[in-house]
Design goal:
Layout (H helix, E strand, L loop, with lengths): L29 H4 L1 H4 L1 H27 L4 H21 L3 H10 L7 H16 L8 H4 L1 H11 L4
């Protein structure tokens, strides 16, 4: 079973329908794949994405093996697990650090608009489940959107 950011698309799709990369989840792929060594926030973000993508792929694989769940039920299980992972990750962070961590998840978008759109989509997905509701002060879109507007590189 392959566990790749490219295959785990429940929260964020790195490629558009034409197969063109719109954003990169992982900071560690920059600077000759050593980006994670350069910045602690990048490293934390990449670890978070590893956990989120791992949950996505493992749940999808287990559900296929069981052949009992519908695609909507599988997606709900994935989002619930991912919301729990994000909530656990952000629980020990202050609001500013938590917001920065969420913004870091999509900061490597081709355009600011792609970054904003994917971040809002991700937050909508994570907060759509009641299994692990995120603190409203952390996911308040207006403050997160303003941070991504000033930090997205448009690389």
């Amino acid at each position: 079973m392959r566990v790749s950011p490219e295959d785990a698309t429940t929260l964020i799709r790195e490629f558009d329908d034409a197969g063109q990369r719109r954003l990169s989840k992982l900071a560690g792929t920059s600077v000759g794949n050593f980006g994670g060594f350069l910045d602690e926030t990048w490293r934390k973000s990449d670890i978070l994405w590893g956990r989120l993508d791992g949950a996505d792929r493992l749940i999808h694989r287990a559900a296929v093996d069981l052949e009992r769940a519908s695609p909507l039920e599988i997606e709900d299980l994935v989002v619930r697990a991912q919301a729990g992972i994000v909530e656990q990750t952000l629980a020990n962070l202050g609001d500013d650090e938590a917001r920065d961590m969420l913004v870091e998840c999509v900061i490597r978008a081709k355009t600011r608009e792609d970054g904003r759109r994917e971040l809002c989509r991700m937050l909508d997905r994570l907060t759509s489940t009641t299994a692990a509701p995120l603190a409203s002060s952390i996911v308040r879109r207006s403050s997160i959107a303003s941070r991504i507007a000033t930090r997205t590189t448009g690389a």
